[in-house]
């Protein structure tokens, strides 16, 4: 099993930390992982993206241009990464602020309105965990137990009181994700 | 079982490995994309763990001269920087090579020339392997291709630096510095005790021996030439004993990618993609860039139909590949520059275009 994932959105949405938690979850499950971020000025308010690879084997290139799955959190990222999903792959997106929705019919499109849902929780910072939950519902590449362990390992101890809230957010994401049937325009 | 591993950036792994290698001092100045090295060291407070000094100098020029002083006293000292900062250090590195001192310099390369870009590049190959500063000298250059190797090459670099009394460079790039992978560290090595310091260290004259002098200056041309010959002999010995490399699906390869560091990771995927298309591709990955594995590359020239040197540069290592191959088979170069990283399938297309046609 090798799963090649791009997570993309605005800086501050928790893109890089979602990737990190996913990687730690993979490590907990005994997988090989790699986390390759965009870095530099992009991290400071602009778009941020991270390539995450989880595999049973040693990982070759940490940098890719085609992905099994894309988790898209804003319009710029949609414009940039929709075309990079491999045919038959998965595109999961948050509908908030999206005006040009995915148009490919050769991939499986899912939507989870995580930003909207996060606004109903104690803190909107649960957004990335809602989206991670949504993704894991579609692609259960790591077991939930290991995700919780991964969360614990990647969060500094002073945030450990937030673990139950994060777990709740993951479950919420699993509940709200739905498949979108793209009808190809003629 | 997975508890032994931590997930870390390459830069952080290098820093932790330096502490565990029993380093006595780190002297540096921040620059993207390697700033996490000093950030990690200051947060880890190794002065409390092992007594290791971590000091932010006022410039790269100061930092490298602090290394000169520390190494002269027989200490395990290191610095890290990125391309423009490494250029600033070249005078000091040349003096250190001339004074035969063991230091470790890590270059997390970014695109140039000048300030260039902060994105990853491999455009400092010439500077790293052909000397860098003035005078006839070489660094021993190790090129890690993973976060694990960023950690593993740190103690190795110190060992080689002391074995040869020569500066060792760890040549990585922004991608390896910034990416996170699993890493497992070697146990903590103790720092050298006073009595373990090398006998050439300038730590005060003992009555039973002559003064130790650390200098790179000799105004007598014949003595200087004798010294130059000694360096040449040292580099010859490195070529004999220190060549390191890795091969990937070379056994039946008809076409060979030659790539190091980040490019070698990408080419590993290209090998896979090429083989899916029925092209027997393989990968040769030099781990030591100086000494370059010339014999091994030369031997493969007898087997393959062509070699493609893939680098994030305008074509630097390709010159060493051509020297090793010595005209036996065509050697081509493919590179991306300015911080752009080639993709696995683009490399396969170039291979087809240059060698196979279609």
- Strand line-up of the largest beta sheet of chain B: 3-2-4-5-7-6-12
Number of strands of chain B: 14
Structural class of chain A: alpha/beta
Described by the principal axes of the CA atoms, the overall outline of chain A is globular
Write down the Rg of chain A. 15 Å
Largest sheet of chain A: 7 strands, mixed
- Give the number of helices of chain B: 13
Strand residue content of chain B:
15-25%
Description:
- The complex is a heterodimer of chains A (186) and B (358).
- In chain A, α2 links the parallel β4 and β5 (85-93).
- The longest helix of chain A is centred in the first third of the chain and has 14 residues, at 15-28.
- Chain A has a single domain, classed as Pyruvate-ferredoxin Oxidoreductase, domain 3, CATH 3.40.920.
- In chain A, 34% of the residues lie in helices and 25% in strands.
- With 186 residues, chain A is an alpha/beta fold.
- The relative contact order of chain A is 0.18.
- In chain A, α1 crosses α5 (144-154) and α4 packs across α6 (163-176).
- Chain A has helices spanning 15-28, 75-81, 114-118, 127-138, 144-154, 163-176; strands at 2-10, 32-37, 47-55, 67-72, 85-93, 108-111, 178-180.
- Chain B is α/β, with parallel strands linked by helices.
- Chain B has two domains: 2-196, Rossmann fold, CATH 3.40.50.970; 245-356, Rossmann fold, CATH 3.40.50.920.
- Chain B contains 13 helices and 14 strands.
- In chain B, the strands form three sheets. A seven-stranded mixed β-sheet of chain B has the order 3-2-4-5-7-6-12, with helices on both faces. A five-stranded mixed β-sheet of chain B has the order 9-11-10-13-14, sandwiched between helices. A two-stranded antiparallel ribbon of chain B has the order 1-8.
- In chain B, β13 (306-311), α12 and β14 (331-335) form a beta-alpha-beta unit.
- In chain B, α1 (10-20) packs across α7, α4 packs parallel to α5 and α10 (261-276) crosses α13 (344-356).
- Chain B is globular.
- The mean pLDDT of chain B is 96.
- The chains are: A alpha/beta (186), B alpha/beta (358).
- At the A-B interface, α1 and β2 of A face α8, β8, α10 and α13 of B.
